[in-house]
């Protein structure tokens, strides 16, 4: 069985707490690693602080070369990294491969952005007192960053913290999810081959209690967290004075307007609904369909769901596999049962076999049901009708979340109406809200988070503005 060592400020280490990672689909061990405690995290903080000045002065061309090298190596060894990710996260190989490609693209975007940190010269003679004076504005690295990443995109969401930190000249300590740390520890082997200062990056699997130091310690200048809304907002209470970027959950809505071609969009809707068993924060969870198309859409979704290929994640033909663990599978099953007992109708699915929850389609739901009101983070969708486009927007906005929304329409006025009035961080036209390009601004409003990711936009939070008046 392969072993993966935690990466502590340029050194691979072992601790007294061995940790075996199991394949969620088979229950068989994948690899062994070690969990770090407060002692290792304290060491990482101290060495990260020592690396602040070195990273700040590390030239842009060297940051570019390091990030480009990591990106290239991921692609060269894509098959290995995709297989590892598929086995540790039960992510179908087709989606795991895409994640490796996206992580490489995120690193490449960061390499490019490392050369684009610009300042400006501003006139100060807007008032008489400013006559003969000007301001020179520059951006400086904020300092030591902590990142906490989730299980569902174990590589790319970690890279969305590591890459902009390196690009902006900041050291970073990353705590990956304890259930899926292998992909990031494999990434550490590539990082180790670069010329980055050895305190620049630490990747430390740890328990939540040990990792809490990355939240509370005031020596850390910024926390970037991706995870559930409950955990994220609770963390913010304990962050002290540090900046926080919170990329949290959602129960993304999709509007199917009367002008949409439901047959043309069906494969896209199915993928948004059930890719990676719905364990995606922009999973297309709530579908609102114009009454003229409603029955046909429900029937078409059912027929397409029946064709989904369920199997082992390592197989290229598999479209759908197990959830991350049985506790989450049981939770999803209980939410389905609760909805049905309150009047919802099962069109398809609503079955569980250990970690596997079958793709599930519900109708006749109402907004207060957990399958609508909360982030289900599982393979369950609801489909409800609407009459007027404004009514569909209102239904989207009933949620406490606001991450992304999808709108299928051929009408310019409906596109503009959706963009102006849907309360979400992103509106995806003629596609599902699951769509994300890694260089675009990404984040939510309301309970869905604070701040933005997307390399350039994450870097803005990782840089401090300083002005010289002369």
Which assembly state applies to the chains in this document? Answer: single chain
CATH class of the largest domain: Alpha Beta
The beta-strand count equals 25
Number of domains: 2
Q: CATH superfamily of the largest domain, please? A: Aldehyde Dehydrogenase, Chain A, domain 1
Quick one: biggest sheet? Answer: 7 strands, mixed
State the CATH topology of the largest domain: Aldehyde Dehydrogenase, Chain A, domain 1
Class derived from helix and strand content: alpha/beta
Low-confidence stretches: none
Rg of Cα set: 23 Å
- Straight-line N-to-C gap: 63 Å
CATH architecture descriptor of the largest domain: 3-Layer(aba) Sandwich
What does this 3D model show about the protein?
By secondary structure, the protein is an alpha/beta fold. It folds into 2 domains: 2-248 and 448-469, 3-Layer(aba) Sandwich (Aldehyde Dehydrogenase, Chain A, domain 1); 253-437, Aldehyde Dehydrogenase, Chain A, domain 2, CATH 3.40.309.10. The chain contains 17 helices and 25 strands. The strands form 7 sheets. The chain has a 7-stranded mixed β-sheet with strand order 15-18-19-14-13-21-22, sandwiched between helices. The termini are far apart.
């Amino acid at each position: 069985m392969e072993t993966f060592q935690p990466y502590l400020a340029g050194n691979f280490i072992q601790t007294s707490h061995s940790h075996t990672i199991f394949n969620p689909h088979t229950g068989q061990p994948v690899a062994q690693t070690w969990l770090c405690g407060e002692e290792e995290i304290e060491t990482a903080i101290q060495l990260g602080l020592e690396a602040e000045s070195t990273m700040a002065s590390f030239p842009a061309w060297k940051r570019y070369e390091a990030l480009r090298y990591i990106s290239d190596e991921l692609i060269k060894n894509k098959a290995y990294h995709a297989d590892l990710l598929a086995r540790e996260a039960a992510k179908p190989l087709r989606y795991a491969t895409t994640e490796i490609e996206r992580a490489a693209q995120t690193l490449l975007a960061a390499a490019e952005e490392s050369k684009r940190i610009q300042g400006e010269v501003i006139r100060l003679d807007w008032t008489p007192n400013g006559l003969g004076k000007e301001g020179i504005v520059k951006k400086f690295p904020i300092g030591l960053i902590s990142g906490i990443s989730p299980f569902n995109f174990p590589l790319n969401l970690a890279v969305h913290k590591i890459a902009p930190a390196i690009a902006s000249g900041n050291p970073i300590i990353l705590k990956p999810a304890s259930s899926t740390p292998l992909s990031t520890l494999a990434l550490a082997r590539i990082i180790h081959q670069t010329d980055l200062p050895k305190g620049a990056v630490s990747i430390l699997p740890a328990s939540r209690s040990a990792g809490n130091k990355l939240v509370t310690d005031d020596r850390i200048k910024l926390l970037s967290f991706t995870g559930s809304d409950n955990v994220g907002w609770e963390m913010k209470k304990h962050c002290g004075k540090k900046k926080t970027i919170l990329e949290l959950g959602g129960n993304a809505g999709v509007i199917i307007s009367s002008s949409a071609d439901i047959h043309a969009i069906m494969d896209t809707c199915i993928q948004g609904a059930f890719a990676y068993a719905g364990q995606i924060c922009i999973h297309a969870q709530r579908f609102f369909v114009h009454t003229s198309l409603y029955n046909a859409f429900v029937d078409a979704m059912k027929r397409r769901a029946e064709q989904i290929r369920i199997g082992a994640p390592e197989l290229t033909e598999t479209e759908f596999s197990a959830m991350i663990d049985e506790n989450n599978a049981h939770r999803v099953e209980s939410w389905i049962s609760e909805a049905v007992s309150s009047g919802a109708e099962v069109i398809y699915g609503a079955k569980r076999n250990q970690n596997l929850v079958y793709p599930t389609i519900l109708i006749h739901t109402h907004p207060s049901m957990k399958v609508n009101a909360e982030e289900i983070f599982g393979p369950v969708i609801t489909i409800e009708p609407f009459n007027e486009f404004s009514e569909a927007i209102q239904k989207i906005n009933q949620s406490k979340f606001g991450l992304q929304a999808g709108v299928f329409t051929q009408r310019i006025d409906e596109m503009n109406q959706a963009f102006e009035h849907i309360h979400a961080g992103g509106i995806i036209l003629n596609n599902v809200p699951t769509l994300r390009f890694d260089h675009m601004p990404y984040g939510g409003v309301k309970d869905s988070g604070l701040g933005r990711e997307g390399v350039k936009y994450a870097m803005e939070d990782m840089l401090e503005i300083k002005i010289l008046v002369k």
